[in-house]
From TrEMBL:
Family statement: Belongs to the TacA antitoxin family.
SUPFAM superfamilies assigned to the protein according to its UniProt record, in alphabetical order: Ribbon-helix-helix (SSF47598)
Protein name per Swiss-Prot or TrEMBL: DUF1778 domain-containing protein
InterPro entries: Ribbon_hlx_hlx (IPR010985), TacA_1-like (IPR014795)
Length: 93
């Protein structure tokens, strides 16, 4: 996090029951944070985890080799690919 002060213009409101609020307050207390700080940092960490899980691709060693080999030595274009490329070039003129 940068040392500069950032303006906080956006707001997120959450409705919750008394029990949920008490749990959040208790957890925030253990982390020496306000409830808002605790909820924000925890939610952001979980959001980043979910994004990584859904946007990152993990390959086994064998799959990585196949992928790398395909990138390093791609096959020659076949007739369908040449036809598609010609169609693309014509459309972009």
């Amino acid at each position: 996090m940068s040392s500069t002060v950032e303006a906080k213009d956006d707001r997120l409101q959450v409705r919750l029951n008394a029990e949920a609020k008490a749990v959040l307050q208790r957890a925030a207390h253990y982390r020496h944070k306000t409830v808002s700080q605790f909820v924000l940092t925890t939610a952001l960490a979980e959001a980043e985890k979910v994004i990584r899980e859904n946007e990152a691709v993990a390959l086994s060693a064998a799959d990585w080799k196949v992928f790398y080999d395909a990138l390093s030595s791609p096959p020659a274009p076949n007739a369908a690919l040449r036809k598609a490329f010609a169609k693309y070039q014509k459309a972009s003129e």
